[in-house]
User: What shape does this take?
Amino acid sequence: MNTGCQAWAFAPLVVGGGLLGSLAIGWREEREAVWPDELELLAAFAAQCAAAVSRVLGAEDQRRRVRREQQQQRQHEAVALQAESAALALLAAGAPVTEVLPALARWVELSLRPTTCTISLAPAEPGVPTRRDQAGAAPCAPVRPPGPARLEVPVTSPASGALLGTLVLHREVAEPLDAAASALVDRACHLVGIAVDRQHLLARLDQQARHDALTGLANRRQLLEALEDDLRRGDLPVVVFLDLDGLKVVNDTEGHEQGDALLVEVAQRLAQAASPQDLVARFGGDEFVVLVRDHADVDELAARLLRAVSAPRDGRPARASAGVVRAEPGQSARTLVRAADQAMYRAKSGGGGRHEVAELVAGLGAALGSQRP
Assistant: This one.
């Protein structure tokens, strides 16, 4: 480079312990030497230049680091938002708790990195106050004093306030949750409560839809479904159709409460007399059906069930009539129940307190299948 200078002096530019370049000063006239004070001034100016460059480079590094952290934060927030949306979609779709809870735990983990979240459920105990009820604690107050980097949060039923379980957070640093994190965890607990409450409600509705409200036995729907399942698998069970003799007399003379008590007692007796693999159902009114899955002697079976029903009650004997049919290939559940029902009416017409065995004949399925039992 032609600058017209006849003499030069140089000072290194050192930034961060590394040589970035050099600072040069030139003189147009020839000189035999550069004076020490001039070199000292040049070195001081080079140091100032190096400090300024270092600040510029540091600021740029800081800006790049902030941009990188912001980008990572946005990516984390997007992933957490996707996890939240997935959990809410499962909840809205009525997915089982076994799918909803892991999705909610993953959302909490992604939102509160680095955190491990587990959700454990306990049987709901209606009427039992939670710590929140007892102490008026904030929603994210721990159930018991937390261990190092561990926080336990109660999950309560939004409907009843009963304690449903616990949400446990394991964090790298043992520090309290800030307001935003506390609100997120509380929302997660609320969503868990909604999912569990709905599961309990569906279980109760299914129980009501498939069981008799008075006796607790299976109802007609569950009986027919179970019988159809047996026939579909190729099993050939025995169907025993029982009808109480004289329930109307009990209702008229002692009141319907006594009649209901008789029905409950008969239900208990039949359940005790049946085998664990059998199904006892209240078919309607004073009618009961026992689905017997393993019995060779139908006469002995019917006699045993009638003895159980006819045991004295309050010093007075109860009576029932029964119809029995053994399933055959190609028959439907309604056909078999109808055949057992008709056999029971023959037993009742013969004086009651006895049983009749139905004989299935060709064409009976078509004829009876069109009649609703």
